[in-house]
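Study both lines:
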Amino acid sequence: MEWGPDIALEPFFGSLREEIGIGGRHSTQGGGDDLEFLGKKTSELRGKVCVLSLDGGGTPGIIPARLLAYLEELLKQKSGDQDARIADYFDVVTGTSVGGLIATMLFTGDENSRPLFRAEEAWKVMAERGREVFKKVAKSSVWSKLRGKSSKSSRFSVKPLEQVLKEYLVREDGSALTLRDTIKPVLIPCYDLTTAAPFLFSRADALENQTWNFNLWEICRATTATPPFLPPACVTSVDGKTSCTAIDGRVVMHNPTAAAITHVLHNKREFPSVRGVEDLLVLSLGTGQIDQTYMYDTVRGWGALQWVKPLAKIVLDGVADTVDHTISMAFDGGVTKQDRDGHE
């Protein structure tokens, strides 16, 4: 996929432009007039907690980044505040893989506790530096690696990615920014090979104990580590007491919306007034939908290697769609992707 696509944004926003709504693969959950809440800063709201959830998706992850840049411009127009940022309008953010990178860039604070990046800046960084980051280290295909015919362990070198992350996620004095430097609750998942379990980087945990505080560049490295494209990441907390061997968060939380909702419902310290989903407004952004179908006559003779790529996509998309459907049904009047497509 080419980086920096020319995305037609109006179909995603449609008639919701004036209400500051958004569409895409997932939806805004909360129902009806709740869309108007996105036109108010969280400090102005009473009784609603606004959650932003960003799916993983490799290079298509630039799609929600571009949508958020568009949304931020609409919020500036609606509020009359030219310094309005996405982080001003959401109480919690969660993101997987590339979605985790976007979340980190938009919700990390500078020395004045204002977001380091405008949404427009964030998506342009991704678009402009993407080609540099994902340089192939060998001409051999992924399938060659699966057959064990390639001497290279990963398709891309991890050094360019780490260099870019270290370049942007630092303080003015050059020291690394950490989870404690985020300005709102942040949740970013990965999968820990050491414990064979999901691992969730959480700002709330980091504020409570340095044992759970990690450098942000390492968190982004962890949630995007996708073998065989990028190798696993060994990340360690700032005090050296906690570590994990991480791979891409998409394998467990391709759509991390449920994790964010659970976090809010059980985090009474930061969200004491939340009683249930009726107190939430959730904006969940996916990375587009390509419905690839297969006929029986086509797949009945497939071998193991032919199934690897389509099965991986089916599993990842299936997990994301299941979360979308479950969360949608938890909200009164929630709309699922299937509802919008007329499949139900």
